[in-house]
Amino acid sequence: MARGKGKGRRGGKGGKSRDAAPGGTDDSWRTTEVIEKADMHNERFEAYYKAQNVLSEGEWDAFLESMKEPLPTTFRVTGSRQVAQLLNDMIKDTHAPQLAGVVFEGEAVAPPKQIPWYPDGLAWQLNVAKKVLRKSPEFKKFHNFLVFETEVGNISRQEAVSMLPPLFLEVEPHHRVMDMCAAPGSKTAQLLEALHAHDTVTASSFPSGLLVANDSDHKRTHMLIHQAARLPSPSLMVTNHDASIFPAIKIPSEQLAFPEGTKTRVVNKRQHQLLFDRILCDVPCSGDGTMRKNPGIWKHWSPMDGNGLHGLQLRILERAMRMLQKGGRIVYSTCSINPVENEAVVAAALKSIPGFELVDMSNHLPGLIFRPGIKTWTPFVDRFVTTKFPTYQAYLESLPENKRADAKLVESHWPPTPAEADALHLEYCMRIYPHLQDTGGFFVAVLQKKQPPAPARQGPENKRNADTVEDLETSDTKKPKLSAEDDAEAADDEALATTPEPVPEAAPDAEAAAPEPATDAKGKGKGRATQGADIHFKENPFTFLKPDDPVIQTCISQLQLQADFPAANMLIRNPTGDTVRSIYMTNDIVKQIVESNDYTRMRLVTCGTKVVAKQEGAAAKRDSAEMQFRILSEGLPAMLPYVAPASILSADLATLKVMMETYYPVLSQFQEPFRSAIAPKAQGCCIVRFAQGRLGTAALAHDLVLPVWKSNVSVTLMIEKKAKSALSLRVFGEDITTAAREAAQQRRDQQARSQAPSAEAAPPEADVVREEGAGSEGQADAPTGPPMGTGA
Ligand SMILES: C[S@@+](CC[C@H](N)C(=O)[O-])C[C@H]1O[C@@H](n2cnc3c(N)ncnc32)[C@H](O)[C@@H]1O
Questions:
Q1: CATH no. for 162-375+417-455+467-497
Q2: What is the ipTM for the molecules in this complex?
Q3: For residue 18, how far is its CA from the centre of ligand 1 (angstroms)?
Q4: Residue ranges per domain, the chain?
Q5: What DSSP state is assigned to residue 212?
Q6: pLDDT tens-digit map of 73-117
Q7: What is the pLDDT of residues 677-721, one digit of tens each?
Q8: Of 3, 19, 164, 444, which is best to mutate to test ligand 1, by the most ligand atoms within 8 angstroms of its C-beta?
Q9: Mutate which of 215, 286, 342 for ligand 1 pocket (most atoms within 8 A of beta carbon)
Q10: Burial of 254 (C-beta count, 10 Å sphere; 0-12/13-18/19+)
Q11: Rounded alpha-carbon distances, angstroms, from residue 409 to 288, 343, 405
Q12: Taking the model in full, what pTM does it have?
């Protein structure tokens, strides 16, 4: 449910909101609601949208009819890895042709087809009933493939239209990006992929940019963390704020001045507000564009849903505009077709904060069919779509004087004058209707903050230009509800925001005197909890370890990390800053932010990516490891560039097969030369590069680098069960893992029990037999997350 922080109500004034992304990011590959087509009817909906003239008369029936059809399944192959292309070729060249001739219950079933406008053909559409996926052997196999690859993050199930906003943002690896309403995170994942566009098959890049993924719902921020685990990034921060009052983030000015790859030198202590290059406002909305997926909306739909959300949507967009860099871009999107939630919000925001313009993106995605934004509409002020007023003034006058202050609608619900609508170019907004390309309904607008005409440096007296706080106060729209502190800060921020680049270090700034990050007795720099801290925010602090910290030094020596390893960017999360279980890695800008801001005020839930974990359990003790660390499989791509190449073991596909088939293969199970190479290794974490090649019908299309744990007697592949199965399916064409064999055995046992004369007579379920050399360190501790660099 959409909740403004502490408001305890949905979004705005009594509206119902859609919180989940269209298509969401759940991996169930299932739709949730079943409703008879005859019940997909709502007179209010039809009357309202006919009154809005959103479509021509000739299109109306096709629109309405398509709103009642089930939504096709759509997915995309995740884009930042080179693996994506390989996997995509596999769908195109193997799966799609195999599915082309399938006939189910006498009818031909359409194979998956590529979405015409998605770059590089990486997105697909599948119009197949659930029954077919379950019962047709060919589609069942394809479905299993999709489920496994989704599980490990190589495929993302996402509604087609939901893929649009990140594409329009055009994020690059150096961009500072903000996702204001991010959960559950399908678009966050796309943004991360764009930041990581330079990743290779085996190693993750270290983007200099930043992605702040925010959501006001604390529980849903954990969906974001789950989502981000598919593409671990040192550039990610997850926050839990009401986006309409998102606090200014402070950053030392020198961070702004030093390019990627150079060491950050502290030349002064001035701090400025971090301004973003790209902001996504995928705001909470009524979701009436998702009726094909959520048919329950038919029953309850009312114009008051959109009316109630308009205020919050506008406040979120306006806050984004204040946090945007000159020349930066905002994408505002909803999965509603209601102009009150769309053009009305955009027009009001553009009118209240000058210096922005709508961008014509009509040629950006060839193949995408859409309709231009509309310039006029008719708000209705009751749920039955019977009462309307030509102007806000007329509406107010209809209310008794003592009720006017509590009027449900504000002036910005009404359209601007025709001249204003022309000047704002509302036609540059994009409306997507279900009947155009068999999708959900959607709205996207791209706003840009204009560059100043000349780079002339402004004096402090005229630093506040068009987008000043004073202008905001004269706006007809409600001023964002900022706390007193935020308000003052926003005023300062505005001044800074309008200062031409390079950011002058002389600008007087109240925050310049902000204290240095707290340093504890051990010299560890801690994420600060200072004055203004949010005492209700219960996340653990963020503590950066000093590069000479014994824990870091142990990691460096055990994992054989090279001199350029960014030891200063490693942090731990716990209340005392002492006990270490996991170590996270961030990039420079994330570190700067954590050290310069109170993490509770930012409501920072997590940042960076977990790369190393302390190996605990019986095996570590048995191996007399005092403090043993292992690289997590999801952290490996980030760590790989720093691992000494000589310490990486080489292996072939036969070795991988042994590790797949057995949880804890003993050394004698391996062939030479791998056996002799790993035997002398100390007990602990090792990195193995499996070379591309073939083994019978199995094929590894490119090198694969994975972490293993070497104990006294065995070698364990340290990837999570499901990731292992996905890898096995891809490389060996079947799931050869121990887990799959055990599951098959369990199914057979279950079947035998159900066929036995009585439940009592059934034999007890067989214990899972531990294989020779089994320790306790393997699967139980194995991390979740995709095996990066996989793909064959
Ligand atoms: C449409 S969904 C976002 C979907 C998401 N962008 C995606 O692609 O997965 C809207 C989200 O806004 C969140 N939300 C509602 N009110 C908010 C507010 N005031 N500030 C920030 N997030 C808010 C909801 O919790 C919900 O997760």
A1: 3.40.50.150
A2: 1.00
A3: 8
A4: 162-375+417-455+467-497, 525-614, 644-761
A5: E
A6: 999 998 656 678 888 998 999 999 999 989 999 999 999 999 999
A7: 999 998 889 999 999 999 999 999 888 999 999 998 999 999 988
A8: 19
A9: 215
A10: middle
A11: 20, 16, 10
A12: 0.82
